[in-house]
Amino acid sequence: MVSNTIQFIYNNKIYSIKNPDPNKTVLDYIRNDLKKNGTKEGCAEGGCGACTVVLGELKNSKLIYKSINSCISFLPSINGKHLILVENLMSKKNQLHPIQEAMVKFHGSQCGFCTPGFIMSLFAMYKNFKKFNDEIIEETLSGNLCRCTGYRPIIDAAKSLNNKKDNDHFKKDQIKIIKLLKKINNNEIEITYKDKKYYSPRSTNSLKKIIKKNPNAHFLSGGTDLSLEVTKLRGEIKNIISLNSVKELNFVKKNKNFIEVGAGVSLYDFQNIIKSYYLDFYNILKRYGSVQIRNVGTISGNIATASPIGDTLPLLLSLDAVVKIQTKSGLKTIPLNKFFISYRKTKLKKGDFVYSVKIPISKKNYFRAYKISKRFDDDISTVCASFNFLIENNKIVEAKIAYGGMSEIPKRATSIEKKLNNSVFSEELFLNAQNLIKDDFSPIGDMRASKNYRLEIARNLLMKFFYEIKTKRNIRIN
Prior knowledge:
With 478 residues, this protein is α+β, with helices and mostly antiparallel strands. 32% of the residues lie in helices and 24% in strands. A 5-stranded mixed sheet has the order 1-7-8-10-9, covered by helices on one side. It has a 5-stranded mixed sheet with strand order 3-2-6-4-5. The chain is globular. The relative contact order is 0.09.
């Protein structure tokens, strides 16, 4: 069945909207249609967290809660979910929620503009974790910016929640919400609004049929980048095909040789999968945007966007990842280092989309990744570097090095690799190799860094890798 109506839960009721504007953001709907003004717009690009709301959804018949940036989420994306705003946190008896009580008690608000976003991020944390240590709190708040409080009172408020039992009205209404979510139609969505169309298929067969009829449509796989064409560039996207509801794309396959991640897997889910294989990959992902961004964004979307500063791309390149592309004639596999053509251009043709990415598992290798940015959290890379080395008997058998932010595409440092391969692992070798950085890259200067700064950082990161591995291997330098 195909429906032109989206349905979601709000205030313990099913809301239905027939043929909504596919370019309308959740934030605009909240403020202009629901007339709820607690949720704010600060940046319109998912960078400040003032617009944070929470979506509840069913996973294996259990409710999970995800914070998202409503300013860059299109309204159809909340189909089948439970929308929770800051106004909903107070009980029917007008009692403050434990999150709100904690913020009041610890003076976590000053001007108040950012406060609703902080509260909603903390609400998602409160519902998803039983205990809140420093790491969980810091990650939870990494996507919320405040200019007044210095964060300490907000962190103190978060820590105090360890003494609060989760017995709020959402907990009491849990069975009711689950029943309502199950009652919502599970149909495929096809929306027509003036000259715009939005498709949300639920199977690859249906997806292929839609692509055949709409070869020029934009694919939405998370949409944290695509939505900026509307919110920042003030443009319109006429045709959108969402991949987020296609069940066959939401998968992770593992064996002793590789991990394959489908296009529908969120970056947040992926970070917790990759942790046991490549810890540095996990650490970089924890700095990728924010929890709100990673709850929505996907690794396949990051690949297809082909940004030269996409944080996952140098890591995947150094790991020799390959992408599976769904074409008109079937699945096609391409090494990632041959996927990027020029700035924001890839081997994808009209109607093609990234089906999955396969990441080799190399337990014998030394893998490191580094991100340099102006802010530690919630910031775009100035330079991102990744190193994947196989070293045996103090000899570099194979060196794979990739950088982001150094070229119009993320790419491998082939000249440096050639210099290092089949050579003795030594300080002199690396000092000589770092001088080849200009042979591989000619970065631009922009608002984040000058050309020379980027080159110097790239050299230094190569040496950082050497000294870290030397220490780990306990190698004495002559």
